[in-house]
Amino acid sequence: xxxxxxxxxxxxxxxxxxxxxxxxxxxxxxxxxxxxxxxxxxxxxxxxxxxxxxxxxxxxxxxxxxxxxxxxxxxxxxxxxxxxxxxxxxxxxxxxxxxxxxxxxxxxxxxxxxxxxxxxxxxxxxxxxxxxxxxxxxxxxxxxxxxxxxxxxxxxxxxxxxxxxxxxxxxxxxxxxxxxxxxxxxxxxxxxxxxxxxxxxxxxxxxxxxxxxxxxxxxxxxxxxxxxxxxxxxxxxxxxxxxxxxxxxxxxxxxxxxxxxxxxxxxxxxxxxxxxxxxxxxxxxxxx
Length: 288
Ligand code: FES
Description:
Layout: H1 2-27, H2 30-52, H3 58-80, E1 83-85, H4 93-102, E2 106-108, H5 118-145, E3 156-161, E4 170-173, E5 178-183, E6 191-196, E7 208-215, E8 222-228, E9 235-236, E10 242-244, E11 253-258, E12 263-272
Parallel strand pairs: 1-2
Antiparallel strand pairs: 3-12, 4-5, 5-6, 6-11, 7-8, 8-9, 9-10, 11-12
């Protein structure tokens, strides 16, 4: 919603800008006429870029300031232009007197029977555009600050019941960006661990490679199945403990709780740095 408001505002500002250029043509303003192609091109490009980057909110960042700037420039220019009327007879004596006292210039428009002056349309669209863009920006700020239950990564993610995950299994929970690991006693458990899929080295996504063979030089254990980062080959055991590669530590862990009925919940906002005792953090299934 804020984005559509922003683009409505940007569109109105564009209408105002085109109107301003038409007026410059009518009044023979050569300076404005000679600069309008780049001005128009830049504003259209900025708004198009804004629309293209809509998903990242960059849309607002790009289109609002440009359109807002043109709207304000338009209003400033209009305020200094002569007042245009269809005919002097169509203006009330009070208005004429006010212009005379203020020293305003008045010109007669070529289309004498125009009901609404171009100035009114331009000013209206510029103000509407400014209002829409400010409302859109305010909407985005409120949207950003409004607290609500975060679903997916960044909030609590329900992973399922312990019965779904056999001992030794590694299950990728895409919504929470973690691996749910059911450690056996041989692997340091028994218990469950939630390992953040992001490699502590440079942030690549770490997959579980069930067919990959490797010998842990520290323990001498040689087996198939490791977490292995495709970027620089950092290698981690079942509990996400680093055994090889440039990663500065083991895989990071997320806070995990198991309800008495076996339902697993992972708080993806609470992340602890990985360490060699990752397996010691495994949560055991409560006895009921
Ligand atoms: Fe994983 Fe470099 S990002 S090893």
